[in-house]
Amino acid sequence: MPAIRLFGLPTDVNSSFERGAAAGPAAIRAALRSERGNLASELGPEIGVDIAFADDGDLPLSEDTARDDAAIRRHVTMLQEDGEVPLALGGDHAVTFPLVEAAATCFGPVNILHFDAHPDLYDDFGGNPRSHASPFARICEAGHAGRLVQVGIRTLNRHCREQAERFGVEIVPMAGFTPGAVPVLEGPLYISIDLDGIDPAQAPGVAHPEPGGLTVREVLAVLHKQTAPIVGADIVEHHPGRDVGGVTAILGAKLVRELAALIDRNGPYPN
């Protein structure tokens, strides 16, 4: 089974409204290590016991996006060349672009399962083409996505709708949502979880809360039905300054456990 390597990406330089997501990795990591809970997943295995799991700490990022992108690509490429699976903690959602770029360089275009309130498909946002509102536009135009399925979207404006049509994005609407409406994707599979995809009643610690979102149980149901080998994953956009009682950090830690167990269960993708 593949070894899983956790690492943090403490940057929010590309946040469009309010910075604070740079503190997300530390908060999620603290919740993961807290004696409040344990390291077992709902799939059964425990990380670090039944699952090969290591924490690389945070990458030393800067306010220079190009330099940070290069550092992220180097780290992910190193892990993937060693047969390990990167599991990243953001940071804002802009970090997903270099993460997916590195995966696609190693495996070819990846299929992406993306949980979010927002499609993040802006050609640019506020004049910034590397905004956290734009990573999937960059990913799609570079040809890194074989298939992009977005779950939890509930703020689709005209521009992003046009972008989705342009790139052939598959959006599973929240209206009438059931986990069964989400397809089971083939590998190589990449999973990106923006915590604001979950309803703010269950995940208040985000900069862009949007009512009417996914429940934690719905997210887990969608994750657990995926059977393809996973080549990378991220959990992004936790803003500890907006959290209530640490519940969003605790959720982030739970998702680390569930993603690790899923990566382990689904096995390695053949190079």
Which helices and strands occur, and which strands form pairs?
Layout: E1 4-9, H1 24-33, E2 53-58, H2 65-81, E3 85-90, H3 96-107, E4 110-115, H4 135-141, E5 145-151, H5 158-167, E6 170-172, E7 189-194, H6 216-224, E8 230-236, H7 247-266
Parallel strand pairs: 1-2, 1-3, 3-8, 4-5, 4-7, 5-6, 7-8
Helix pairs in contact: 1-7, 2-3, 3-4, 6-7
What would your notes on this structure say?
The longest helix has 20 residues, at 247-266. This protein has an eight-stranded parallel sheet, sandwiched between helices. The chain contains seven helices and eight strands, in the order E-H-E-H-E-H-E-H-E-H-E-E-H-E-H. By secondary structure, it is α/β, with parallel strands linked by helices. The mean pLDDT is 96. It has one domain (4-266): Ureohydrolase domain (Arginase, Chain A), CATH 3.40.800.10. The chain has helices at 24-33, 65-81, 96-107, 135-141, 158-167, 216-224, 247-266; strands at residues 4-9, 53-58, 85-90, 110-115, 145-151, 170-172, 189-194, 230-236.
Structure summarized in a few sentences:
The protein has 271 residues and is an alpha/beta fold. It contains seven helices and eight strands. It has an eight-stranded parallel sheet with strand order 2-1-3-8-7-4-5-6, sandwiched between helices.
